[in-house]
Amino acid sequence: MADTAPVTGDEPVVMMDYFMHLEYREVICPIVRRYAAALADGKILGQRSPKSGLVYVPPRGYCPVSSEWLGEDHLVELDDRGTITNFTIVTPVQYYGQEETEPFVKASVLLDGPGGMLSLQDILDHRPDDIRIGMRVEAVWLPEAERLTGEIGNRSYGSVDGAIQGWRATGEPDLPADSFTDKVY
Amino acid sequence: MADLPVSTHVIEFPYTRTLGPVVGPFLTGLRDGQILGIRSNDGRVLVPPTEWDPNTGEALDVGGLVPVGPGGVVETWAWVTRPTTKHPLDHPFAFALIRLDGADTALLHAVDAGTADVMVTGMRVTARFRDERAGTITDLVFVPEGA
With contact defined as beta carbons under 8 Å apart, do A73 and A62 qualify? Predict the structure, then answer.
């Protein structure tokens, strides 16, 4: 119901406050549970589709491109280093729940080795203006005792929340964009 | 279904909206302890009042706001055994469609009846306004007439 501050005096009521609050629970599917547990152990798991060759992280149990189920046999451990393939600079508006006050970056990170794309990643220790496409980064893991991956839900694609704080530039030379254009999906 | 792994999510979104020329006076009326309906173009009294005639879509004259109630008749009802935090009362109650005296349509509201045994379609109820009112639909609750 409406959670409204009392109206005092005899002024006409012309506005209404509403506080939308929705709390829900979802049962986590086994492959996401496996992913979250591995993440707490410091490993990023993905699933590689044998038909399309695409790597999904977090694993999602199916490949929408080749239309096939993916299972335990398709799990692959992914690298915790990669390349920024794209990014967005967010200038925060101070809406309810926004904790950021300064512009920040959310980046897509293409992982090395088997591949896999993590989206909406935080880039640490860098001014947004200094982020570049092709920049090499590595994961900054939370200390093992502080990792909490219980909030990863079934729709948290790209989420490493609770295990990886963000990504830090390695200082290696940038990769040219054409080295990863075919892998951006 | 025991011990299935779950994750809990919370979505919150506060907002403010303008009420317009009809709902504004309606909630102002509630704040002042009065329930208002509006006369439609075919002479019926609609509660809660709307800006538009539900049959024709024509604008309704704000001058046609008229007091209704505070008593009325329960047209149908459903008992809420376990209220959630979203409900207007923190103990079991009925949601009911209440056709207020002087109205031609029914208002959906809560009846604080104590037990479901008291609830009967066709029973008379009356509005009980809260002492502290804020200009919201929860400024009142209905109780069985004579209670």
Answer: no
pLDDT at A155 exceeding the cut of 80: no
Which of A42, A29, A35 is CA-nearest to residue A74? A35
Domain ranges for chain B = 20-144
pLDDT reading at A64 higher than 60: yes
Mean pLDDT by groups of 10 residues along chain B of 147 residues: 74 92 96 96 95 93 94 98 93 98 98 97 98 94 93
Name residue B14's amino acid.
P
- Within-domain flag for A61: yes
Contact A25 B9 (CB under 8 A): yes
ipTM, 2 decimals?
A: 0.81
Q: Does B83 touch chain A (CB under 8 A)?
A: no
Q: Is residue A144 part of a domain?
A: yes
Q: What is the distance between the alpha carbons of residues A26 and A34, in angstroms, rounded to a whole number?
A: 16
Residue A53, domain member (yes or no): yes
Euclidean distance between CA atoms A131 and B141, whole angstroms: 58
Whole-model pTM: value is 0.68
Partners of B141 on chain A (C-beta within 8 Å) are none
The tally of domains found in chain A comes to 1
Contact assignment for B7 to A2 by CB distance below 8 Å: no
Report which of residues A28 and A150 the model is more confident about: A28
Residues of A with CB under 8 A from a CB of B: 1-2, 4-7, 12-28, 33, 96-97, 150-153
Tell me whether the omega of the peptide bond preceding residue A92 falls within 30 degrees of 0, making it cis: no
| More confident call, A162 vs B1 | A162
Nearest to B18 among A2, A15, A20 (CB): A15
Distance of residue A65 Cα from the nearest chain B Cα, in angstroms? 28
Tokens of B72: 């009325």
| Per-residue pLDDT at A152 exceeds 90 | no
Quote the minimal CA–CA distance from B54 to chain A in Å. Answer: 23
